[in-house]
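Tutorial, part two.
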Amino acid sequence: MRGVFVTGTDTSVGKTAVSAALMVRYRGARYWKPIQTGPEDDTTTVLRLSSSPAREAAWLHGVRLGDPASPHLAAKRAGIRIDLPFLTAVVRETEFSWIVEGAGGALVPVNESDLMVHLMERLGLPVVIVARTTLGTINHTLLTIEAVRARRLTVAGVVMVGEPDADNHAAIEQYGQVAILGEMPRFHPLTPAGLAEWAGAHLDSENRLAEFLA
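Running the prediction step on this input gives:
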């Protein structure tokens, strides 16, 4: 597969907005949310924010669970088991470039034995980590980087979300030995126009992801 896998240091950190921004920045890539929990539909949100046509820009195959819980728990409550080989079998044979968004963080459980990072392993994509800019982000981001690299996956970069913090930015770059691909503000409101303007001007300005997505 070609593309990137978007994970976060936590839930609700901004993965979906960053995924939409990547769709704007790298037109032609396709979006996929393999596992969705909770009442919101992130695929619809990404397509709306990136002004992308659904049929051409998204892969709708996946697990959809309405319970706003960890995938393993939401699946258990629904009476099913999330099977990673089945989930990834079809998409691995495609020729598109993918922006794949995970659920929760890298170590969130998917079933009784697999974690989200095992889904990343099966896909083998470079990983974009979405992190907060606020206090605690250095520890959370470095832990996520370590968990991803422990599976011999490439960390393609980090996107920080929130009020800019130069010290946290510098610390993550230094101690994580990773590039910061952009610092996304908390948009109020979050609109397709505002996101597109930011993505075009500030996301991956050095084209580090072009080898995976262009």
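The chain has a mean pLDDT of 95. In part three we will examine how such features are distributed along the chain.
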